[in-house]
Every structure is written in structure tokens, then in C-alpha cells.
Amino acid sequence: MKKIIWIASLLLSAVVLVSCEKEGGDDTDMDAGFYVMADKNVIQSNGEDFATFKALLDGKDVTAETAFYLKEGKDMKPFSGNKLTASAAGKYDVIGSYGTFYTEDPVSISAIDMPVPAAAEDTDPSKTSFVHRSFLNQYTGTGCGYCPGMIRALRAAFEDEQTAEMAVLAAVHSFGAGDPAYISGPRSNSYPFLHIDMVSGFTYDMDPFGEGKVLKTALQERTSSPAKVGISANPVLKDDVLVVTVEVKAAVAGEYNVGVWFMQDNVYGQQKDEIGIVAGDKSFEYHDNCVRSADSRYLNSYAGYPLGEIKAGKTAKRTFVLNVDKTDWKLKDMNDIHFAAFVTAKKGRAYEVLNVIDCPYNEPSPYEYK
């Protein structure tokens, strides 16, 4: 995450803070209902490489009786069998239909004309003691008049270097479609809202987290335990297509999920202010860590794609693809692009983030060992 530089000094006042504890960030049951999965999400656009689809209904294999379709806008084009090839680079969305059941969300397959990058080099394969960070999801928007309070609160909190080292921040601008950083993906029931590891969160009345102390304490509690997993990432950019291989190493055996949220810094947009915080401060017109693609949606959940069980000391990986839209995003500098790679696991009926790293777009991010 970029170091946050503040142009104006911050004036802190009284704190009115509510902490909302939940069992987990998403209660989607990944084992129930009708759904379609693919054996890989990235293929070569050579007309020969292919992805194979499997359909399950309440855990039962119904692939042979399922029809598969390519979703192109509002059109649904059937294809034969359960294998998909591509002769052109791009994104292909596949829908499955079985009797009266169909998949609400398509399974996306990215066809690329470049090699899939290898995992980042592991400097100490025998080691499983990792730096532990929390994933902060800031639900916000330029049209949210009360959001400047949360922005100011986070600025104050992240001025403390120890706090900044314990977390990765992602700003989800899903409040309103007029926002230049608007994303229609993850949403909150209230704005502003700060979700910590998809488990607990903070909302507020008007003011910061008591000079950052409350948030710092929450992060210390979340990251004080040893990390159950470590994460590495290796990105490669070609013709505005960013391909990233994320590898996960388990310190503790378990079933894990992985996701990537691609972000952009320095997005310009005038911030609505109904609480008198902005007051001509131009720094509020530039927004960092804006999520451009939340590539973690699986079965109506943003908790990540399943990697299956990983034994202690072993690894699993997944490849992610982002089409960088320089025109729509008004992107002037590729250095404003970075991404958060995170891992979740089930907690009760829901999921929590176990670790996260923030990565530049143009160099490997190896495992961070302690």
C-alpha cells in the first residue's frame, strides 16, 4: 500500500464510535445448491487449450445432464460438451443450466496470448512463519456526504507506521454510480463502513477513531496470532493485460480460498461533504486504493475461490487476470495500479480473512517471513 501523504494537517475531535461484531463476512454456503466450476480459470487463446466444466447439485455431479452456455451480453450461446476453447484473447463467461436450475453468476474464463507467470521465488521453502496483516475494506463513495469522516479517521490512523504495517486498505466505492471509482461489486448495508477481515467492523457518527488508537488496538488483536498462511504473487503485464499468479503456503493445514482485489491510486473526484470536514481541502479530491476489480466472487460470495485443502508446509496457487482500462479509469501512470491478494477460511457459516499482502503491478512479491 502506498504511503499516504497528507497535504493539510488533521484536526481531531471527540470520538463517537460503534463496533459491530459479526461471526463472519459472508454466510454463503459453498456446498449447497446448483453451481458450476472449472478446472482452470485461465487458458491459452490458441484454439487448443481448454477449460473443463463440472456441475454439482447439492454436492452431486450432474455434469452429464447440464447444458453450458457462453454469455455474451444478453445473449446465451450454447456450446457442445463441457469443454471451452478460445481462438482469441479475452474474457469468456459460462452459464450452466440443469432442469429448472441455472447459475446466477457466470464462471469466467480468461484466454490469454502469453505464458502464465510462475509463482514468485520462495527464498526459504522450509519456513512457515509469516508476517500477519489484516484486510481493511472501506465502503465509501464520492457522493457519500458522511464518508469524509471515515476518510479522515483512516488518514489519522495510518499516520502511525505500526498501524500502517498491520493492514492493507482497499476502498470500495460502491455508494453511487456517479463516482469516478464506482464498482458494482461488494456492497455494505451502510456507508461509510470499515470491514476488518470480513469479520468485524466500524461505523461512526462524525469523528476519527480516537487518534487512531481504537483501530490500532483492533488490528493488534487481529494480527497478534501467528499467520496460518503466507501469500506470494508474481505479476506480468502485456498489452494492458495484467496476469498474476498467487501462491498460498499453509503454516496450518486447512481448506483455504484466495482472491485478488485490483486497485488504483490518485483517482480524481470531488467529495461530497455534509459534516464540514473537507472545507476546501484539495487532498479529499484524490482517492487512493480504489478497487477496480474485486476478483474473488464465487457462488455469490466475495470470500475468494476455493483452493481445497493445503497441508502444512505445502502450497496451492491460482492465476488472476485484469484488463487495465486506461481510458475509462483515466489512468495516467501504471504505478498507480497495485493489488491486494488475500486468503480466507470458513468461520462458522461464514468466512474470515486470514492474511493479505499489497503488491505492485510490476514486480514479484515473495513470501514475507518473520
What's the arrangement of secondary structure elements?
Layout: E1 17-21, E2 34-38, E3 42-44, E4 50-57, E5 60-61, E6 67-72, E7 75-78, E8 83-85, E9 90-98, E10 101-102, E11 107-112, E12 134-140, H1 147-158, H2 161-165, E13 167-173, E14 193-196, E15 200-204, H3 213-223, E16 229-238, E17 241-250, E18 254-264, E19 267-268, E20 286-287, E21 290-295, E22 305-310, E23 315-323, E24 337-347, E25 350-360
Parallel strand pairs: 3-11, 12-13
Antiparallel strand pairs: 1-15, 2-4, 4-5, 4-8, 6-7, 6-9, 9-10, 9-11, 12-14, 14-15, 16-17, 17-23, 18-21, 18-22, 18-24, 19-20, 24-25
Overview of this protein structure:
The protein has 370 residues and is mainly β. Helix content is 8%, strand content 42%. The strands form six sheets. Strands 3, 6, 7, 9, 10 and 11 form a six-stranded mixed sheet that branches. The relative contact order is 0.20.
